[in-house]
Amino acid sequence: MKELTDKIRDSIERTECKGVVIGLSGGIDSAVVAKLCVNAIGAENVMGVFMPSSVTPVDDYRVTTEICSDWKMDLRILDVQPAVDSLSAILASSIDTPLDRGNITARCRMIVLYNLAKKYSRVVMGTSNESEMMIGYFTKFGDGAFDISPLSGLFKTHVRQIAKIIGVPDEIIQRPPSAGLWEGQTDEEDMGISYEELDPILYSMSQGRSDKEISDLTGSSIGKVKRIRKLVRDSEHKRTQPISP
Question: Per-residue pLDDT averaged across 147-171, rounded?
Fold first, then answer.
């Protein structure tokens, strides 16, 4: 754990900024990043930002305020719903879907984070883990935007283990993962697979194993492995720099 916090501290110091800004959701990923940053650079240099929308559960507010109080972090609360409504109103609202609204919400939140980062000379910390990054389960230029990404290379199951070690409350660790972009939304329902099943598949892919090898090794069906590989392949554009001819 010391190696991880040292790397976070070194990465922040190289930017010559005064601290960090983190979008807090009440979920495990943002809580882990916040606690790692508190441990690395001190609570006085960590700004948590809670950005509710009309579908944000009240419990998200409660657990966010509790961890910020416990960890002595600065907390800013900014409602993004008016911005989401304004943007949705000038777009093709006749074909609006929950996913469209979710993407707009994620990008509005990132506008807020970068605005605060600029104002207070801070860097934006990413909260996406390797599982999400590999299958493209994030919004491009939304939660996929950041200056430093401390959970890159750490699968969701790793994040849960780290959360227990560094003292993230059990309530947050046990909450169903959700981006909170529409009512009742959960990560695993969207993906059609649990993180416990997904992570061994993704790890095996990162090791260069074939679909059959992965199926034999993990016990997941060959069809499921092929579907996950397609998600990885189809989302590659989200993880690469813009194409420059």
Answer: 96
